[in-house]
Amino acid sequence: MLALLILVNELTPLDAPSWLTLGVPVFVIAVELLPGRSRRLPKAERAAGAGEPDAVETEPPVTGRWSALNSPADKVPSHGVRTYGQAYAIDIVAESGDPDRKRPAFGWWPPVRPNRDFPAFGAPVLAVADATVVRAVGSRRDHYSRNSWPALLPFFLEGFARDVAGPGRLFGNHLILDLGDGTYAAYAHLRKDSLAVRAGERVRAGQRLAEVGNTGNSTEPHLHFQLMDRPEPHTARGVPFRWRGVGVPANGETFTVAAAGERQGTP
């Protein structure tokens, strides 16, 4: 990181405005300290994670039309790190068929948007299997979107602060389910006060658990989903998944999941 800061300093013009002189190094530090970068697994554990375990097939956690981001279909680890059980994690965003409610594109303006502008906000989140809820956090506030260039630096700084506080702050409102056989499912960035279940409760596959929100380290309303080998993200290793009828959608791939009633009678 020091070498990168020196390079940035050498390339910055002497007559550059103060906001650029100070802002670029701060940006570099923020990127270096992005969630997970400062808490990498020890070398031995990274080596142990080199072998790809078998994927666990589950039901999809949503219905409707969605697109994938940061998908393990394109690279592993999908989010650049294996910490917090994220090796095979995926982010998905809802895509509306309504031309008057399309998902806002990343750009320069406005710097932030209200969550209601995004089709994913408030979408139902479903149990991917029969399971037991082992953790349920739902009281943290939803913040405005950060899907713009002006909002990136504040987002990185917020991410660093959340990383220091631990995975609970990165995930925001979240659920962790015990699927059995040493597999746990984590759902992150859920909407405040939307949880319909609590720790210790048994749930059935397809049951409504919560709603998609914009809490924790999130640029816009979306669902972060991952499977892990234990319930505590601090020590968990990621487990590959496959969604029944969908597989593992690649980055930018749009997929549609029919509601349970619409799937009845299909092979």
UniProtKB/TrEMBL annotation:
In this chain the M23ase beta-sheet core domain maps to 166-230
This protein's source sits in the domain of life called Bacteria
Alphabetical list of PANTHER family matching this protein? MUREIN HYDROLASE ACTIVATOR ENVC (PTHR21666:SF270), PEPTIDASE-RELATED (PTHR21666)
Full protein name: M23 family metallopeptidase
Write down the species: Streptomyces lycii
